[in-house]
Amino acid sequence: MDARLNFFGSPASAKAIKGLMTLGKEIKAMPLPATTQELVSLRVSLINGCAFCIDMHTKDAAAAGETAVRLNLVAAWREATVYTEAERAALALAEEGTRVADGAGGVPDEVWAKAAEHYDEEQLAALVMLISFMNLANRANIITQQPAGDYVAGQFH
Question: Is residue 90 assigned to a domain?
Answer without folding.
Answer: yes
